[in-house]
Amino acid sequence: MQYAICNLGIVPLRLEPTDTSEMVSQALYGEYFKILEERAKWCRVRTAFDSCEAWIAKNQFVKITEEDYNRFESEEPVLSADLIEFISGDNQHLIPVPLGSVLNYTQGLNHAHSGHQTSGKKAKDNLIETAFLYLNAPFLWGGKTPFGIDSSGFTQMVYKLNGYKLHRNAADQAKQGESLSFIEESEPGDLAFFDNKEGQITHVGIMMRDNYIIHADGKVRLDRIDHSGIYNPELRQHTYQLRVIKKII
After folding, report:
1. Which of 24, 29, 4 lies closest to 13, judged by CA?
2. Of 56, 89, 110, 183, which sits 20 to 30 A from 123 (CA to CA)?
């Protein structure tokens, strides 16, 4: 088994080993993974944080040792805490890195970081404050940053910055935590899940006070939520059908 780490700011993880394939997620700076299969220009990897399996271009990461990988697994992640920061790389060249990048191995990469950092578990009421850092971020399928994010990437990153792990897609996130029977039982920071006509969970958002939700739909936005689902005032209709609310923390 081989191991690697992302040494660039934002790298696409793709469904198939080609640049034109669907982006299913992203590797942010400092995120590390196992290499499952190696080809001429691509590797199939499994990310350590959320076990996402996808293809990554071989010129967009560097290999690390098994000892480094195991050490990262035992360490508490140190994350970048500003929307965009800069890592000083070789020859003092700057590498832009987004909110939520992992900084534990900067020295091992001969890089330096002097910006704001965060680590450890935070109180549940800090989730909404973190969520507002992504407000108005455009929707991007597979995205995980303030420059483009999808609904489950949004919830995953908000929880990650507060010290908690969520799976990568909404259907898997819905298997975590404790189900609530009514909206009235929910607290700010709980997750609301929504399904399509086939009953498949396709969307997730973060509950707020007074029957509001923050979620990624076109952009990260605030909307009303009731027992039917999310109500979009601009469209004057419900856009997502509520399936379940889960308490993760």
Report:
1. 24
2. 183
Quick: pLDDT tens for 77-131. 999 999 999 999 777 789 999 999 999 999 999 999 989 999 999 999 999 999 9
Rounded to an integer, what distance in angstroms lies between the CA atom of residue 153 and that of residue 136?
14
Residue 54 has, within 13 A of its CA and on its CB side, a CA count of 24
Contacts of 22 (CB under 8 A, 6+ apart): 14, 15, 16, 141, 142
User: At 147, which helix (H) or strand (E)?
Assistant: none
Which of left, alpha, beta for 217 (phi over 0: left; psi -120 to 50: alpha)? Answer: beta
Q: Which CATH number characterizes residue 226's domain? A: 3.90.1720.10
| Domain harbouring 86, CATH code | 2.30.30.40
- Counted residue by residue, the chain has a size of 249
Instruction: Indicate whether 130 and 243 sit together in one domain.
Output: yes
With 0.85 as the threshold, say if the pTM is over it. Answer: yes
